[in-house]
Amino acid sequence: MPITKAVFPVAGLGTRFLPATKASPKEMLPLVDKPLIQYVVEEAIASGIEEIIIITGRGKRAIEDHFDVSFELEDILRQKGKRKLLEEVQKISNMLDICYVRQKEPSGLGHALLCAKNLVKGEPFAVLLGDDVIDAKVPVLRQMLEVYNTYNAPVIAIQEVDRSQVSNYGIIKANLIEEGIYRVTDMVEKPPVDEAPSNLAIIGRYILTPDIIELLKKTRPGSGKEIQLTDALRDLTKTRPVYAYKFRGKRYDAGDKLGFLKATVEFALKNEEFGEDFREYLKTLKL
After folding, report:
1. Residue 58 DSSP label
2. pLDDT band at 223 (very low <50, low <70, confident <90, very high)
3. Is the pTM of this model over 0.70?
4. What is the DSSP pairing of strand 30-31 with strand 34-35?
5. Domains and CATH numbers, the chain
6. Which residues are 172's β-sheet partners?
7. pLDDT in tens, 50-82
8. Which of 240, 49, 233, 245 lies closest to 146, judged by CA?
9. Residue 121's closest CA among 205, 208, 50, 210?
10. Cα–Cα dist 169/265, whole Å
11. Is the dihedral of CA 87, 90, 95, 101 positive or negative?
């Protein structure tokens, strides 16, 4: 069955960016000239996704407004003859239809997906985390869909991380079956360094099958006293194959201050409008 739906869980509090995120969603932080979430939505669309479900929470209204039509702004841009900016603004609201569901309390990624159960309607679906921005020639979700179409099974994105960082991620235990593709045998959420089964970390891209919903309903709160998707996926590996894919591309953890700064510099350098001028400016800094 083709994947046409993608879920974006964005109800988190964004505490790593306080006080900037006290009244503004982390996903709306600008990465050069676009908010973080727009990069990820564009990846989904470029991968063939037709319907997006965004799981929001209190204080996330700015996300809905961003993807909505802004009649007043468009009218002002039209009157001032700013056609290029008008086209950019209209492009955002015309991307595709987006559905919104409220997660009343931030109780984990697994709980967020349960909030979307009535909208995924028993179909396989993708999950993309809005603060994982990945620069890739071929959109990472499209890469994963090729794996899904080959194996007809859940697929999670992974990357190798430094062993000292494993306690910040869900970590898999897996067997390599072909280049870049693993069959998962176990996984654990944020293990201590000395207990991690590998240094293969789960990154914010998933392709999931409908059976994950029933498992999430039975999953008890785990790490951080939240319902963890990793725990449900671990149970899923006991009943069916689950695959991990080491994607091609560079991932930025834009939900982390240092990761966000790195992404800002590197995306700015690639900007066609001012990238070269920015590069020359950086050369003048006494580092």
Report:
1. T
2. low
3. yes
4. antiparallel
5. 5-283 (3.90.550.10)
6. 187
7. 999 999 988 788 888 888 888 788 888 888 888
8. 245
9. 210
10. 24
11. positive
